[in-house]
Design goal:
This protein has 21 helices and 30 strands. By secondary structure, the protein is of the alpha/beta class. It has a domain of 129 residues: ANL, C-terminal domain (GMP Synthetase, Chain A, domain 3), CATH 3.30.300.30. The chain is globular and about 75 Å long. 32% of the residues lie in helices and 23% in strands. A hairpin with a 3-residue loop joins strand 28 and strand 29. The strands form eight sheets. It has an eight-stranded mixed β-sheet with strand order 12-11-8-6-7-14-15-23, sandwiched between helices. A seven-stranded mixed β-sheet has the order 5-4-17-16-18-19-20, with helices on both faces. The chain has a four-stranded antiparallel β-sheet with strand order 21-22-24-25. The model has no long low-confidence stretch (mean pLDDT 96). Helix 11 packs across helix 12 and helix 14 packs across helix 16. It binds 5'-O-(acetylsulfamoyl)adenosine. 5'-O-(acetylsulfamoyl)adenosine binds next to helix 12, strand 24 and strand 25.
Length: 650
């Protein structure tokens, strides 16, 4: 069967920033031939207090990169103040509350005042340039104010997704060495209350290092406030002036830390710097979504993840966009929620994760068709591979075959989108992220670390270029940064993903090939979940794998061996207790879908758990287990298969 190719829509191409494949190639070739010139030109789109002297410098041995060295700028100034002259009264942020139909429009001028007030509060509480500030907030405007306020005064924000548990939050506060935490009394999501302040209190128990907790008020509820430490943000900002000077940050000064999961149990504080990150976020937002002034842009991610950082806050605001901040879920109060917002706000560009699309599609097309969606022009996807069926549904049903679909591949570490179609230039194939963005050189590498030339090859996805948005280090552990990304395939950045380059040179991301899984677009390390499980007194051993799931994309399957004293407990009771255990250690979103209690795990004679086999069984693939003769206990496989059949009915 010839591969489906969706041509570019002429109406989109006619007005697009990049309107043809020739134009894409021309710019791509320029970016490869003379990257410094290319990126210097892009950097001109930002406002600099002082121009850079060196576009790019690298010490490959030490894995140190710098962009726009010598330059001084402020990310908050670029996202807020510089727009006041031309678009002070334009809406910067439309907040879509959890309650359907409730919106709040915040102009660029309002944004400046609100951000400045929060910045002044932070200063009053002793926050200085370079200090880390932890933000653990729901999707309310104060979250955006807090991030931008940090940027304004040169503090480094560490946003922790509000779905993380007290323990996970505590680890991140300790690792980043934060003295100030911003939170809310409660969060509201899908009509349910999340007791954020209570979680913060638990995270801070016995911790002396956090001296200030600023609490935004999202609900009328009162919460316990610890005298001297806790303050209502609304009371604090009231006293402040609506103006605050900005720090002239060096281009390579840190802008933020964002924790992400890797193949060990300890999350990594990925560090991004100011100049390169902002140039890259702004440029990709403009080109990938073909953003034009006046567009209403809606990224449905949570600001607690990198997608929210780059494509709700920094990229869109640097471009003077109107960006929607969505507090609720795609299915609250019903699966038509996204399209209701699209119609209410006349959204032109919409960006979400495949897992959300699958959940909505499952509920039936009527939820989509109830709304007009006539304002939509570009539809984006991110976070996990998008299966061709749901890609077609997005294109045909949501976009009525008029909209461009952009499947954007990137990572927390890359700062912005790296492999993606451009709406006006790239013919698309359902399920393929298509071609590299400007300045990006993907490589497909074999087991020996040899790059595979030509098309029609698959292997590990590496990158053989430097781009301004790339992470510079892991907070507090540069050695780990080098080890994690630059040693497995010497000379290249290893993404952790597998990929295929097809006959046309299009990239197909096949998913993680390390011990990371993407569950509903949330990135989790299997080792993290395992260490949460074995922390339970009943658990002797645990092994976690991912398996294909209709809505979540990948779901978590945990094999657990109980200690002798617990072996006779009711399975149901233990399964419940262990799911709760993971919720407590990481967050509810990390709780395994399946807990498979068993007598032993399949191991090699040297004691290595055979994950390959565990993955097969979890996926109900009983054929092609490969060589199991090296197993210490070959009959374990048969037992596991039988137990799995009983558990899953497959
Ligand atoms: C942006 C984000 C990164 C991992 C990455 C991939 C997977 C993301 C796509 C994708 C296939 C895509 N950052 N991933 N986008 N896989 N197609 N378009 O998600 O750090 O949280 O996760 O997500 O495995 O390595 S992340």
């Amino acid at each position: 069967m010839p591969e489906e190719l969706y041509p570019v829509k002429p109406e989109i191409a006619r007005v697009a920033h990049v309107g043809s494949m020739e134009e894409y190639r021309r710019l791509y070739d320029l970016s490869m031939a003379d990257p410094e010139r290319f990126w210097a030109e892009q950097a001109e789109t930002l406002t600099w207090f002082h121009k850079w002297s060196t576009v790019f410098d690298a010490d490959y041995e030490e894995v140190d990169f710098g962009w726009f060295l010598g330059g001084r700028l402020n990310a908050c100034f670029n996202c807020v103040d510089r727009h006041l002259k031309d678009r002070g009264n334009q809406t910067a942020i439309i907040w879509a509350a959890d309650e359907p139909g409730v919106y709040k429009h915040i102009t660029y001028r309002d944004l400046k005042h609100n951000v400045s007030r929060v910045a002044n509060v932070l200063k009053e509480h002793g926050v200085k340039a370079g200090d880390r500030v932890c933000i653990y907030m729901p999707m309310i405007p104060e979250l955006a104010y807090a991030m931008l306020a940090c940027a304004r005064i040169g503090a480094v924000h560490s946003v922790v997704f509000a779905g993380f548990s007290a323990e996970a939050l505590r680890d991140r506060i300790v690792d980043a060495g934060t003295k100030v935490v911003l939170t809310a009394n409660e969060g509201l999501r899908g009509g349910k209350v999340i007791h954020l302040k209570r979680i913060v209190d638990r995270a801070l128990e016995g911790m002396q290092t956090v001296t200030t907790v600023l609490v935004a008020r999202r609900t009328p509820s009162e919460v316990p406030m610890q005298a001297g430490r806790d303050h209502w943000l609304e009371d604090e900002v009231k006293r402040q002036r609506s103006t605050c000077t900005f720090e002239w940050m060096g281009a390579e000064d840190p802008l933020f830390i964002l924790y992400t999961s890797g193949s060990t149990g300890k999350p990594k504080g990925v560090l991004h710097t100011t100049g390169g990150y902002l140039v890259y976020a702004a440029m990709t937002h403009k080109y990938v979504f073909d953003f034009r002034p006046g567009d209403i842009y809606f990224c449905a991610a949570d600001a607690g993840w990198i997608t929210g950082h780059s494509y709700i806050i920094y990229g869109p605001l640097a471009n003077g966009a109107t960006t929607v901040m969505f507090e609720s879920t795609p299915v609250y109060p019903d699966p038509g929620r996204y399209w209701r917002i699209v119609d209410d706000l006349k959204v032109n560009i919409f960006y979400t994760a495949p897992t959300a699309l699958r959940a909505i599609a499952q509920a039936g097309d009527s939820w989509v068709k109830e709304y007009k969606r006539s304002s939509l022009r570009v539809l984006g996807s991110v976070g996990e591979p998008i299966n061709p069926e749901i890609w077609r549904w997005y294109h045909d049903v949501v976009g009525e075959k008029r909209c461009a679909v952009v499947d954007t591949w990137w990572q927390t570490e890359t700062g912005g989108i790296l492999i993606t179609p451009l709406p006006g230039a790239t013919p698309t194939k359902p399920g393929s992220a298509t071609l590299p963005f400007f300045g990006v050189k993907p490589l497909i590498v074999d087991h020996e670390g040899k790059p595979l030339e030509g098309n029609g090859v698959s292997g590990a996805l590496c990158l053989n270029s430097a781009w301004p948005g790339q992470a510079r280090t892991i907070h507090g552990d540069h050695h780990r940064f080098k080890e994690t990304y630059f040693t497995q395939y010497p000379g290249y950045y290893f993404t952790g993903d597998g990929a295929r380059r097809d006959e046309d040179g299009y990239y197909w991301i096949t998913g993680r090939i390390d011990d990371v899984i993407n569950v509903s677009g949330h990135r989790l390390g299997t080792a993290e979940i395992e260490s949460a499980l074995v922390a339970h007194e009943a658990v002797a051993e645990a092994a976690v794998v991912g398996y294909p799931h209709e809505v979540k994309g990948t779901a978590i399957y945990a094999y657990v061996v109980l200690g002798a004293e617990y072996a006779c407990r009711s399975r149901q009771e233990m399964q419940g207790a262990l799911k709760e255990q993971v919720s407590q250690a990481i967050g509810r979103f990390a709780a395994p879908e399946v807990i498979h209690i068993t007598a032993s795990l399949p191991k090699t004679r040297s004691g290595k758990i055979m994950r390959r086999i565990l993955r097969k069984i979890a996926a109900s693939e009983y054929e092609g287990m490969g060589d199991i003769t090296t197993l210490a206990e070959p009959e374990a496989v048969e037992r596991l298969v039988k137990e799995h059949r009983d558990l899953s009915g497959r």
